[in-house]
Each structure stands twice: as C-alpha cells, then as structure tokens.
Design brief:
3 helices; 96 residues; 35% helix; Alpha-Beta Plaits; globular; alpha+beta
C-alpha cells in the first residue's frame, strides 16, 4: 500500500543548517524508491496555523518510507534539519 511522508515546516531557525540539510538529504535519496509529489510549492492554509513549507514524498509502502527515513544517510541529514527548522513529519498510508 502506497505510503506518503509529509514534512510540514513551521519556521526556519538557521538557514545555514537548512542548506547543509538540503545537500545531505538529497544525497540520502540513494536508491530508495522516492517519488516527490510536492516540494515547497505555494501553500494556501485553509485551517489552522499558517505553515512555511510542505514536502510530500510517495513510497511504495510504509516499510520503504521507514527504510529511507531510518537510513544512516538520512539520519545524518536529519541532525541538521532539527537544528535548522521546526517541522512536523509523518508517514500516512494511502488507500490502496
């Protein structure tokens, strides 16, 4: 079942850390089966607090999403994202 990783960026704290994160996260893609569906495009908030940006990634299933997120390469990149911005991140399973 398709799974989606959703990144909701609330605010940037350190642009340099985010630049480092961007480079390392891109390299962490490796051969993981990731399909980007949205990547910091225009966001119109209909309800709740406004967000700074959104990324939506598609994976064949939740196991593939976890394999990417839990990989050593992404975990190294993650340390820079945690210093660089406030995010909410989740995995959501699709309908079929």
């Amino acid at each position: 079942m398709t799974a989606y990783v959703i990144f909701i960026r609330d605010s940037i704290k350190d642009a340099e850390e985010m630049a480092t994160y961007g480079k390392k996260a891109g390299a962490a893609r490796g051969d993981h089966p990731i399909t980007p569906l949205a990547f910091y495009g225009a966001v119109e908030t209909l309800e709740g607090p406004k967000v700074d940006g959104v990324v939506l990634l598609s994976f064949p299933d939740a196991a593939a999403a976890h394999a990417w997120y839990d990989s050593p390469a992404y975990q190294e990149a993650l340390q820079h994202r945690l210093k660089g911005a406030d995010y909410r991140v989740m995995i959501v399973e699709g309908l079929g």
